[in-house]
Amino acid sequence: MMDFKGMYEAQKAFRSRIDYKGSDRFEKLILALQVELGECANELPESFKFWAHKKNDLETALVEYVDGLSFILDLGIEIYFEDFEMIYRLSSKDKDKSVSSQFNRIFSLVARFNWNKSPITYIELISEYLILGELLGFSFEEIEEAYYQKNAVNHSRQNEGY
């Protein structure tokens, strides 16, 4: 299983570098997550663009996927979530689930979480996000490694005034 506590702490450290005092941080994080979900899906045209003949770009999709994970972790910080033992997969990989239906499920959960900010919805969101990664063929090790690589890039960007 992934080291959520370690990634959560890394996200907290990155977040502390961004001096944002607005009262709308949560809603901006929700929108940012939705944008990253769309960007990830866009790298996977075989999963939903039945009208196109483009191939999936799994390498770029993984980068977009971990961008989304960063925002999910940041949303956990927003609700002061720290019950890491509660992060578990609610269901195992379902071979009948399609990637497009999983994206739609996650978009729905993000909308629900936007309204209720419940730790249970947050856990469900993480769980379904992990299932999406599994459906895409990403191992937990690949996801964690890609997260830390992107976190380093994000720190570098902050150093450069991004």
Keywords:
162 residues, 0% strand, all-alpha NTP pyrophosphatase fold, single chain, mainly alpha, 6 helices, globular
Question: How is this structure best described in words?
Answer:
By secondary structure, this protein is mostly helical. It has helices at 4-15, 25-42, 58-78, 99-116, 119-135, 140-159. The protein has a single domain, classed as Type II deoxyuridine triphosphatase (all-alpha NTP pyrophosphatase fold, Orthogonal Bundle). The protein is globular, with a radius of gyration of 15 Å. The mean pLDDT is 92.
Outline of this structure?
The protein is an all-alpha fold. The chain has helices at 4-15, 25-42, 58-78, 99-116, 119-135, 140-159. The chain is built from six helices and no strands.
Oligomeric state as shown: single chain
N-to-C span: 33 Å
Radius of gyration: 15 Å
Specify the CATH architecture: Orthogonal Bundle
The percent range for helix content is 55-70%
Number of domains: 1
Proportion of residues in extended strands: under 5%
Structural class, please?
Answer: mainly alpha
Extract low-pLDDT stretches: none
- How do the helices and strands follow one another from N- to C-terminus? HHHHHH
Estimate the mean pLDDT confidence: 92
Shape: globular
Largest sheet: none
The total count of strands amounts to 0
Full CATH superfamily name: Type II deoxyuridine triphosphatase
How many DSSP helices? 6
CATH topology: all-alpha NTP pyrophosphatase fold
CATH class categorisation: Mainly Alpha
